Amino acid sequence: MNNENLPRHIGIIMDGNGRWAAQRGLPRTQGHRAGVEAFERICEYAADIGIPYLTFYAFSTENWARPPEEVAAIMALFRRQLESTKLRQAENEQKRWRIRYIGDLREGGPVPPDILQLLREMEQSSAGMDRTVVNIAVNYGGRQEILGAARRLARLCAQGELGPDALTEQDMEAGLYTAGQPMPDLIIRPSGEQRLSNFLLWQCAYAEFWFSDVLWPDFTPAHLDEALAAYAARNRRFGEI
Ligand code: IPE
Ligand code: IPE
Ligand code: MG
Questions:
Q1: Would you say the CB of residue 59 lies under 6 angstroms from ligand 2?
Q2: Ligand 2 and 57: CB distance under 6 A
Q3: 153 — phi, psi (to 5°)?
């Protein structure tokens, strides 16, 4: 594939874990576990082929409304995954993924404090990595992100540092979790759903979309190739002719 037609930033909505498990008569947690394996597989492949920015949707602000047992199981899985990754330092140095977490990850929020600590450690230990930036969205909501950026601007205006009438799109973007990164070129959603579910609302203004019926745990590099081929054939006009 022509490198020029590769997206610089891909967003992936990792959906369908529960249905994958249900199809096999397994508890939903097993689906989430298989979803983590798919994440590792796709991240590795995308980094190999030279995608510089990836954003994976792992847990939304709305996912807290699920039954408490499922939420607890997902949090336990995050914890286990973070702890085991932390121990595999040699592997991490080989992968050279720069991990960043996006979402409302403030102390005192709903994400358990020990997980917040592990997330911060992971970000710090990968801060010098240069191969691929991997954003993982946890307690993430696009509307909440935009609201946060608007609050920041309101504060700056109240302090007299910016004027309301002079505000620019760049000022807004400086307050998004993805500040400094390119906008996503391609959004991939498996599992048959064709919606954003509050993912990267501002950033998606000119993204291309690729939907598939495959459930996330079954997602393979061949599916990513399919998405990339479809993307490469698109004509992105950005309003021009
Ligand atoms: C995605 O899989 C994982 C999270 C949202 C945490 P789901 O758990 O939504 O799986 P389905 O959509 O019920 O199959
Ligand atoms: C979107 O999936 C969120 C994540 C994949 C983390 P959901 O399963 O929560 O989305 P809806 O409820 O089908 O829109
Ligand atoms: Mg779902």
A1: yes
A2: yes
A3: -65, -40
Place of tokens 């949090």: 75
Integer-rounded Cα radius of gyration of the chain: 18
Q: Go through 2-32 and write b for each residue having 16 or more CB atoms within 10 A of its CB, e for each that does not.
A: eeeebbebbbbbbbbbbbbbeeeeeebbbbb
What does the pLDDT look like over 81-111, one tens digit per residue? 999 999 999 999 999 999 999 999 999 999 9
Residue 86 · residue 42 · CB < 8 Å = no
Shortest-distance ligand to the CA of residue 13? 2
What separation in angstroms does the CA of 160 have from each of 76, 156, 164? 44, 6, 10
Q: Is residue 139 within a helix (H) or strand (E), and if so which, with residue range?
A: strand 132-140
Q: 172 by DSSP, 3-state: which?
A: helix
Q: Please tell me the pTM assigned to this model.
A: 0.97
58 lines ligand 2 (CB under 6 A): yes
CA–CA dist 143, 202 (Å, integer)? 9
Residue 28: nearest ligand to its CA?
Answer: 1
Residues near ligand 3 ion, CB 5 Å cutoff: 15
**Local structure of 133: helix, strand or coil:** strand
Q: How many CB atoms lie within 10 A of CB 147?
A: 12
Please give the Cα distance from 147 to 175 (Å, whole number). 10
What pLDDT does 184 receive?
A: 98
